[in-house]
């Protein structure tokens, strides 16, 4: 395994609660109205410092989706999933977007100078 290069975000950020690796910006949240097996989840336009697992078909409340679990590169904890494809037309907006599970995150507010 090579050297790990992490992206450091500036602003109001969400980080891994286990190792504090930056994962996403508050400004990149599309919706906070999602739920997962552990409670609340947020839909993000983009995230950083994650690796992806294997594609799988997963039945969710809104129908069948092809997803990959996403893992923090800092500690390997599962932090959510990425929507690869949605099988129902009205769910297509999720494709290429990321879910971060709230229980796996810490929130750091932007520092005012």
3D architecture notes:
- GO terms for molecular function: metal ion binding.
- It comes from Centaurea solstitialis.
- Residues 12-109 form the Yippee domain.
- This is Protein yippee-like.
- By secondary structure, this protein is mainly β.
- It has one domain (13-108): Beta Complex (Metal Binding Protein, Guanine Nucleotide Exchange Factor, Chain A), CATH 2.170.150.20.
- The protein has strands at residues 13-16, 22-25, 29-36, 39-44, 50-60, 63-72, 78-86, 98-101, 105-108.
- The strands form two sheets. It has a six-stranded antiparallel sheet with strand order 3-4-8-7-6-5, with no helix packed on it. Strands 2-1-9 form a three-stranded antiparallel sheet, with no helix packed on it.
- The protein is globular, with a radius of gyration of 14 Å.
- 28% of the residues are buried.
Topology:
Elements: E1 13-16, E2 22-25, E3 29-36, E4 39-44, E5 50-60, E6 63-72, E7 78-86, E8 98-101, E9 105-108
Antiparallel strand pairs: 1-2, 1-9, 3-4, 4-8, 5-6, 6-7, 7-8
């Amino acid at each position: 395994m090579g050297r790990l290069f992490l992206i450091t975000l500036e602003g109001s950020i969400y980080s891994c609660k286990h190792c504090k690796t930056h994962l996403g910006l508050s400004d990149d949240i599309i919706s906070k109205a999602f739920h997962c097996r552990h409670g609340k989840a947020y839909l993000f336009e983009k995230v950083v410092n994650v690796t992806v697992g294997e594609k799988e078909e997963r039945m969710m409340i809104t129908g069948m989706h092809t997803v990959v679990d996403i893992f923090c590169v800092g500690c390997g904890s599962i932090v959510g999933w990425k929507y690869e494809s949605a099988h129902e037309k009205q769910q297509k907006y999720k494709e290429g977007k990321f879910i971060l599970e709230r229980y796996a995150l810490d929130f750091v507010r932007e520092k005012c100078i």
